[in-house]
Amino acid sequence: MLGSASALLVAFERPPIDWHAVAPELTLLGFGALLTLVDIFWLERGRAVVSALASFGLLASMVPVLTLAWDGTDRSTFWGAYVVDDYSLVMKAVFLLAGYVVVLLSTNYIAEGDYWENEYYQMLLSAVLGMVVMASARDLITIFVALELLSIPAYLMATWRKRDLRSNEAGLKYYLMGVFASAVLLYGMSLLYGATGSTMLADIDAAVSGAGAPLAVVTLGVIFVVVGFGFKVSAFPFHTWAPDTYEGAPTPVTAFLSVASKAAGFVALLSLVFVGFWGRADVYQPLMWALAAASMFGGNLMALRQTNLVRLLAYSGVAQAGYMLAPLAVAGESLATADDALSSVVTYLAIYAAMNLGAFAVVIAVARRTASAEIDAYKGLFRYSPGLAVAMTIFLMALAGIPPLGGWFAKFEIVLALISPGTAWGVALGVIVAINSVIALYYYARIASHMWVEAPPESAEFDTTAPIRTPASVTAALVLTGAATLAFGILPQWVGHFTDVTLIATLVG
Amino acid sequence: MTDFLNDWGLTLVTFVPLVGALVMMAVPAAEERAIKQLALLSSLLAMVIGGLLLIDFDYGDAGALQFVVDARWIEVINSRYILGLDGISLPLLALTLVVVPLCVIYSWDHIPEPGNPKAFFILMLILETGMVGTFVAQDLILFFVFFEVVLLPMFFMIAVWGGENRRYASLKFFLFTLFGSALMLLSFLALFFLSTDPASGESLRTFDMRVLSDVAGAGILGSTQIWIFAGMFIGFGVKVPMFPFHTWLPDAHTEAPTVGSVILAAVLLKLGTYGFVRIAVPMLPDGAETWAPWIGLLAVIGIIYGALGCLAQTDMKRLIAFSSVAHMGFVMLGIATLTDFGINAAIFGMVAHGIITGMLFFVAGSVKERYHTLEIRRLGGLLVQAPRLGWILGLCSMASLGLPGLAGFWGEFPAILSAYSPAEGLPVETFRTYMVIAAVGTVLAAGYLLWLLQRTAMGKPSEEFADSDEIVDVTRTEWLAWTPLLVGIVLFGLLPGLIFDVTDPAVVGLLATGG
């Protein structure tokens, strides 16, 4: 008894840590702690600086990301559980910048409402930290820790309007569904661990790809893991929490959930598929095919009937998740296809972050005047606030994938990856993507024509004569996301250069 | 100067309108005059640059791409920024560069409801960049992007400045064309993956249109080509529009503001036929051969259906829109023969239809402005109340029905004739039947156009409008905007060689590599 305990003690050794590799996480952690200290010592006086401090923390964490990218070597630490390569750096940059834009969107919203302010930014930084960790996580435990690190603050942030019943509903639904998904995920992970005897993704791949792997257990494990993240990325039919949560949560939080949280789910899925069970294409490809097709059709068809813009964006987010899942349905065909598929999803995530955050920025700006996210409230926006109407049109049409706005290249990469192996299933999914972009255009264009064609509602309870004034931070968010959306569309080389990443090399080489 | 044009000419002519639009965004909306001047200036500047290109163009070598630019663009997918101008692109480029400034001039005092000239002109200039870019792009992805750039401005032009039913019409236009281009993009990707170098047998993985037309589908099985061609067929066919994808056109034309209709008829429809000539036929010769009889069939159905549709219309603008369906049928018939004769006729038909139908929509717009209606039943006596306007309508109708000596003749007649001897491998009897049907179509065209003329221009003014003082003859802005088009109708009718000489070497070259 005593012997075994001492054996455990001896067995512990501190893993070698590459401090440079974890510098972004440490910086973020440091700023999170700093925010807590500011809250403790300055109390109310701290409110004036927390938002600036949070955004500074997010940008400061970009510095080590950039130095790591500049250095260029792939790093692996914690015995391979934590990997820093091009792929993880691109995703970290996306998370940090998306987090920065969310802070910009939150500043006025949180300060002007009667909300806890310091805690909000602490939660936000903690969630972003979870995402940044997720980008590097290469074993099941780290993935799960990262997932909870980003989810738990997100549950809280969804209920931030605590006197609003809808916000409580939003948070509770999100929490219950999220916990349920975590349980399913954990069960799947335990099956995988049981079948393979390791939590490291690389080991799992080696084990499940071999002939001796128990098919039933591995299949169930993969399905449960994918389903668990299916909730996070709001894929059909695991999307049911999204519309209610999006509608009830404070809009900046909705923006955060729909972009960063979804991207974090995708990062985990990508690591799992491309490192964890890439060899078992027979298991995950049909699963991804069905999820992708169902999400595209389900999300788009339900979006057609929405009257509330935030709910509409929730359903369009389901469809967008479908587009991003699609390449995973062909990922196992060959190494070259896997590279194409991975790059296409990463590209989509980066561009999607820009255009969807932009759309929410306009929603926030317009709601300051109309206090509503109903699509009818957007009638005649072009007449009295042409700048916002043009911005919204750009973001919506980018989401629809109309060149020369960013979204076209994202969709193009997806279709390219789908067609490249030349299989009937891949081509069929490509055709489904094409058909769905037409369905989606209908509701995006409908909003656009509401803004441009209709006259402002006469019985409106808000002023429809003067342009809407947007606070400086929201304007900054609009400019950033708008410039990115246009730049990604006209010179996709930029994003293509960074997102042309590979995970397979580590696997095979 | 020549060096500069060689390197920068096509880039400038494509992006000068866009730069103009960007500059206009900075001008406050209240400065209407400055906005109009800027719009005119940028479109005229593009026209001048285009003129210089036309002067510098080596007509002896019209079959070769000239002023070629080849620069890095999206390396990850091996797509490059390649522009070039040859005999096929040149007439269409010239048409675009002339039509847009005329539209700006016409809009000078004809801004449709609900006003806002700033947005109107900005959209028009963005549209010009998209159209010009499509005609000079030599990379499939670049072509696709320009092809799509025109969608949004046209959507808003119809949706904001259109007639009563504008929301429905604009959305229909948008959805139809996007559906087509989504399938078209899939076909482009298939070409990208499947085209192989005939010499080495290696996969090319290129979007370079020059290379793809040179290899002409080598390495792609005939059965696969049929599918790829089908995707392009729908993509370009919706834009043309071919029967049965044409239903968006009458709605879009009827609801669009005058200038929108003019641009739509004069240039946008040509993007589709140009796509067939430039991309679908040369790059997929086997697919084209299989589909050609069906294209021909749809083309003649379009001719007859469009003509019958015209006879049933009560609205002047809708009638002209249906006549577009018929005329584009002749163009498609020419293309379907897959002969150099037929395709030359098709390109001439595109230009002629662009000038003539564009002009007809201008006239319709001016009639609407004077009478506030386009219902043929209520019109009449235009020749009495506004004789010059009436005569212009008469001239355009004659040109449209294909009267020899006017431009329309050279689009229709050779297209019909070309169906007599289609390319080798195509069923001769079928095409000769098409020829007869198309010939019947010209008779119907004469029927509906003369009927239109008789009911609107001749007779006595109806009582309703007899004393209206709004009905004035052609105004100065209208003369300015219309004269170049009217001159074009007569000039190309008398000297068709002006276009045929330019297009012929390019068409022959394109088909030669494709054979």
Outline the structure in words.
- The complex is a heterodimer of chains A (509) and B (515).
- Chain A has 509 residues and is mainly alpha-helical.
- Chain A has a domain at 280-509.
- Chain A is 75% helix and 1% strand.
- Chain A is built from 21 helices and two strands.
- Chain A has a two-stranded antiparallel ribbon with strand order 1-2.
- In chain A, a hairpin with a 4-residue loop joins strand 1 (75-77) and strand 2.
- The radius of gyration of chain A is 22 Å and the shape is globular.
- The model of chain A has no long low-confidence stretch (mean pLDDT 89).
- Chain B is mainly alpha-helical.
- Chain B has one domain (2-514).
- Chain B is built from 21 helices and two strands.
- Chain B has a two-stranded antiparallel sheet with strand order 1-2.
- The longest helix of chain B has 32 residues, at 340-371.
- Chain A binds chain B through residues 343, 382, 386, 393, 397, 402-404, 408-409, 412-413, 415-416, 419-420, 422, 427, 430-431, 434-435, 437-438, 441-442, 445-446, 448-449, 452-453, 491-493, 496-497, 500, and chain B through 72-77, 119, 141, 144-145, 148-149, 151-152, 155-156, 159-160, 166-167, 170-171, 174-175, 178-179, 182-183, 185-186, 189-190, 192-194.
